[in-house]
Amino acid sequence: MIKDSQLFQPFSEKPIRLMGDAGEWLGSFELNLDSDTLLKFYRDMLRARLFDERLLLLHRRGQVSFVAPSAGHEAAQVAVAAALKPKKDWVFPYYREPGLLLALGVPAVELFGQAMATRADPNRGRQMPAHPGSRDFNVFTVASVIASHLPPAVGTAISMKVRNTGEVVVASFGDGATSEGDFHAGLNFAGVQGAPIVFVCQNNRYAISVEYHKQTAAETIASKAEAYGLPGYLVDGMDVLACFFVMREAVARARQGFGPSLVEMQVYRLGPHSSADDDTRYRPVEEVETWKTRDPLARMHRFLAHRGLWSREEDLALRTEIEREFRQAVEDAQRAGAVPLEWMFEDVFAELPDHLREQRRDLL
Ligand SMILES: Cc1ncc(C[n+]2csc(CCOP(=O)(O)OP(=O)(O)O)c2C)c(N)n1
Predict the structure, then answer these.
(1) Which pLDDT score is estimated for 6?
(2) How confident is the model at residue 1 (pLDDT cuts 50, 70, 90)?
């Protein structure tokens, strides 16, 4: 029974943490992850950070029209991926999650292709940047409409339960999404049906300029799970080990038929909401600077260095290797060529209706 081996209590007052600021282990149990796994967490976080930086550069050069920076969210995203069985489980992400997709194994060239709308995008350039999806990795294409992916995610999970597939769904979203009706309908239905789904809220304290306390009077997002009969876990979302162990437990719970959970990961968005946002207009620079000192990558770096698993030289070498990989991926994505305009008329109708035929002719 999963309950006998449960490590974490839902509805804690303070966020669950397993790593201190200096990178020390805080867990009450012995850390039983091998060094390859620990190093992979760091590597995946660094790939997420550098992917973000590369997208910003492409935006400045006018090669990408929109970006949604994810720096600060890496630990949460990498941990979610690590708790899943890639290509077996299903993921319903939101728009700020390149770290999750990269860690699942989605090739960087596809994500760059998506951002630039080239033929390297498996979704054929049909979404705005920061809205990828992957049929190969069971990743539902990101929807802009906040929380609208939660009911379909629950439906998918219910179908898994009915067919007894042993698969699990993870659906992620921001704090702002919890004010949408779809969030409440999704959690309620998942609870009633005992759907194998884990809801992950990456609470970065702002929905664009709307600060957390203007979003909800609830002390935590995790507490909202109570109303729907689900356990709600409050986690330090900048602690990759805490996120991983809590997710592993929630995913196991879902897989073994014990139903859904809500996991609130408290993170901070280190950059603006998007390339169309000026965050200095609604949050003090000092606040951002304070959170930068809690950078999830730096904390994991300290944790690894503490254990003699990581050095500055190794860090520089890894950065160079990832930079090289991404430069190549951008080049490959560009070389694939822009998506042809006529693709927008394909794949919906077996036979194009007259009005679309006409529009197609006018356009071409
Ligand atoms: C239903 C709906 N309302 C408003 C918007 C405009 N919008 C886009 S992102 C966003 C903020 C969402 O914030 P949050 O869920 O906290 O995620 P974050 O961007 O902070 O990661 C809003 C209001 C939208 N896309 N969909």
Answers:
(1) 86
(2) very low
Domain residue extents for the chain: 2-363
For 2-363, CATH number out of 3.40.109.10, 3.40.50.970, 3.40.640.10, 3.40.50.720 equals: 3.40.50.970
Which run of H or E residues covers position 363? helix 354-363
- What is the C-alpha R_g of the chain? 21
Phi, psi (degrees; rounded to nearest 5) at 278? -115, 100
Place of tokens 């946002």: 277
In the reported structure, the alpha carbon of residue 94 is separated from the centroid of ligand 1 by a whole-number distance in angstroms of 10
Residue pLDDT, tens place only, 77-96: 999 999 999 999 999 999 99
Residue carrying structure tokens 């080049």: 331
Residue 4 scores a pLDDT above 70: no
**Residues with C-beta less than 6 Å from any ligand 1 atom:** 96, 144-146, 173-177, 180, 204, 206-208, 273
The single residue listed with the structure tokens 């529009």 is: 359
**pLDDT tens digit string along 270-279?**
999 999 999 9
